[in-house]
Amino acid sequence: METLVTKLLHLPPVASAHGTDLDNLMLYVHVLMGVLFVGWSVFFGYAIWRFRKSRSPKADHAGVRSHVSSYLEVAVAVIEAVLLVGFAVPLWARSASATNFPAEADATVVRVIGRQFNWMARYAGPDGVFGLADAKHLSGANPLGIDPDDANAKDDIVTENSEIYVPVGKPVIAHISSLDVIHSFAVRQMRITQDAIPGLSIPVWFTPTQVGVYQITCAQLCGNGHSNMRGLLRVVTQPEYDAWLRSKSKTAAEPVSYD
Fold first, then answer.
1. pTM above 0.90, yes or no
2. Residue 237 to residues 19, 43, 100, Cα–Cα distance (Å)
3. Beta strand pairing status for 163-167 and 192-196?
């Protein structure tokens, strides 16, 4: 959805529920920085003119007696505090706090794994339960180490073609991790960015509001192929997502299907 803010800041159209609040916060910060830039530039120019050598040939060791600049600094600090406490902290709390994090039963859960130089996505399949994984099962055909003897893994789905499917209008919980170096999972239209760190699984969530195809990029320099580490986030309707999930599970090879 394109808004006045996205036009002013030259941002891509927002396609997530929290994106508008984030865009508004960025606009407020830009406005504050613009006012500060103009204000301090005018003040600097006035100081140069007011205290020029021709007008003040002899130094005044007492200096400026006015407290206008002090008042301005206090005002700027107050405005910054309002932006932080009134907008930034509540926005972060709504997105990151445990109390506001959606329940997995009410969300689409996907594990997103970065590696040089593509994205992998793992889904639990129709049963909604992820199969076990262990490093001892790692191989070229099983890069995630999924246990082939675990019954819950039989319908798990792993896509290696950097395509991630999610339904529209439903919270998505993405557990971000990496198989090698530090990557960063970013979808600009969803207004999400999260580092993918080896050995960690970091959850991030968002609610897509627009059906469409959105580019996934890596926002962290990760090697010579960094610029090619792109993918597609496909936001589809719930029936389309369910059909895709069923089709992938039916064609799953042991222990899991690979695209």
1. no
2. 20, 55, 24
3. unpaired
Per-residue pLDDT of the chain (259 residues; tens, 9 = 90+): 778 888 888 889 999 999 988 898 889 889 989 988 998 899 899 888 888 888 777 777 776 677 777 888 898 899 889 888 888 888 777 766 666 788 998 999 999 999 999 999 999 987 888 989 888 888 888 888 888 888 888 888 999 888 999 999 999 999 999 999 999 999 999 999 999 999 899 999 999 999 999 999 999 999 999 999 999 999 999 999 999 988 887 555 444 443 4
Query: CA-CA distance, 195 to 185, in Å (whole number)?
Result: 6
Give the residue ranges of DSSP H helices in the chain.
4-9, 19-50, 68-83, 89-96, 238-250
CATH of 104-258, one of 1.10.4030.10, 2.60.40.420, 3.40.50.2300, 3.40.50.720: 2.60.40.420
Contact of 128 with 248, CB cutoff 8 Å: no
